[in-house]
């Protein structure tokens, strides 16, 4: 039966990993893989995580199932982190949390829920968006469309975005990035979020907000502005949250699907359907990552340590953005690449063309996605002079 199955190309980013490993250039630089790296190029385990795991190892008494919605203790800490302490949405019991296998798992839960419970509704994503969005939603049977997000000059095309949102058929789903837009790094201002809210409300659209990088842009609460604005001013919102980046627990696959409904009764109805979707996908989510997050956020001491570590990571990335632009000044390229300092999160749409990216890889051992998306966490004070010189050579 397998004789006619064809081989398909591997993931482009995974291919970059293999090519980087084989490169013998001692100055090679990896700007492709989407994980945080410290100044030494490592993806460390956070101190708060290590201490939480030690406590779990000491106190854990069972490995039993945690249920389709996950551990209640996890939802208790994720909901206020995302929606805010004292949130009117939480006070009205309008929100439900379902622990998921990473943010990707939450997106798939959302996709299946939309496909089964809201038949005929299409989904609209930014152009560009995280490549896996383009696979997850069609795999669930949804029709996917795109709205403009970045213009030809590598700038946020908010006018084009807003105009497109105004043309989306009523009742369709629109996917928005809460912060640290992947792959561009261009985020909406508070005023722009307000304008998007008005269009979403006017067109009766259902926002699905991908919140994968809370705390990596401006701060835990600052990055949640758009999420909380939508949840507090609309009857229905879907939010997918991830702890991979802000807790550094990538391999633990720790995410959450948050459903916001008009009232508690409707929320309970929706929650019952999400349990079925989760059950049919993977039955129960993995427990360990959620237990780590719960342990940290239920402890004032560990939560303080975690916030300090997260601030250090965020500040390092934002500093590297500015230092990158400064490193290009001797080549008179700082204005051309000034957008890198304005963007937020781990990723940057540099504006480099596919041909320039190829030259950087072949001539200098600098690896990034051909779209010009670079992982800023791969910058370091040691490699910035080399990067600047290489970029000047291909411009």
Automatic annotation (TrEMBL):
It is an enzyme of class 2 (transferase). One of its GO terms (molecular function) is transaminase activity. The keyword Transferase applies. Pfam families: Aminotran_1_2. Signal peptide: none annotated. SUPFAM superfamilies: PLP-dependent transferases. Coiled coil: none annotated. It comes from the Bacteria. Homodimer. NCBIfam families: PRK09257.1 (NF006719). This is Amino acid aminotransferase. The lineage of its organism: Bacteria, Pseudomonadati, Pseudomonadota, Gammaproteobacteria, Oceanospirillales.
């Amino acid at each position: 039966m397998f004789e006619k199955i064809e081989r398909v190309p591997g993931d482009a980013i995974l291919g970059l990993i293999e090519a980087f490993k084989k490169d013998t250039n001692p100055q090679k630089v990896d700007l492709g893989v989407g994980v945080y790296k410290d100044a030494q190029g490592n993806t460390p385990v956070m101190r708060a995580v290590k201490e939480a795991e030690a406590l779990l190892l000491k106190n854990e008494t069972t490995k039993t199932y945690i249920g389709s919605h996950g551990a209640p203790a996890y939802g208790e800490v994720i909901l206020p982190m995302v929606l805010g302490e004292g949130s009117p949405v939480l006070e009205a019991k309008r929100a439900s949390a379902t622990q998921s296998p990473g943010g990707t798992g939450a997106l798939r839960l959302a996709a299946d829920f939309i496909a089964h419970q809201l038949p005929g509704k299409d989904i609209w994503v930014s152009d560009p968006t995280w490549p896996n969005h383009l696979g997850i939603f069609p795999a669930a049977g949804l029709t996917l469309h795109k709205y403009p997000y970045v213009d030809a000059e590598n700038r946020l095309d908010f006018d084009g975005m807003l105009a497109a949102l105004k043309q989306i058929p009523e009742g369709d789903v629109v996917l928005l990035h809460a912060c640290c837009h992947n792959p561009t790094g261009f985020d909406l201002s508070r005023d722009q979020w307000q304008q998007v809210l008005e269009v979403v409300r006017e067109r009766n659209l259902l926002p699905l907000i991908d919140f994968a990088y809370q705390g990596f842009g401006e701060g835990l609460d600052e990055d949640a502005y758009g999420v909380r604005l939508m949840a507090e001013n609309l009857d229905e919102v879907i939010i997918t949250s991830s702890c991979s980046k802000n807790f550094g627990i990538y391999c633990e696959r720790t995410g959450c699907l948050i459903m916001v409904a008009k009232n508690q009764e409707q929320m309970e109805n929706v929650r019952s359907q999400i349990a079925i979707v989760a059950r049919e996908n993977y039955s129960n989510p993995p427990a360990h990552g959620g237990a780590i997050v719960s342990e940290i956020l239920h402890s004032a001491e560990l939560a303080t340590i975690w916030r300090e570590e997260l601030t250090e990571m965020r500040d390092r990335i934002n500093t590297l953005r500015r230092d990158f632009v400064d490193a290009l000044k001797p080549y008179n390229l700082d204005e051309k690449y000034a957008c890198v300092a304005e963007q937020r999160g781990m990723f940057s749409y540099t504006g480099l063309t596919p041909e320039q990216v190829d030259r950087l890889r072949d001539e200098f051992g600098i690896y990034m996605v051909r779209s010009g998306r670079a992982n800023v966490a791969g910058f370091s004070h040691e490699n910035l002079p080399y990067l600047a010189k290489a970029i000047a050579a291909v411009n």
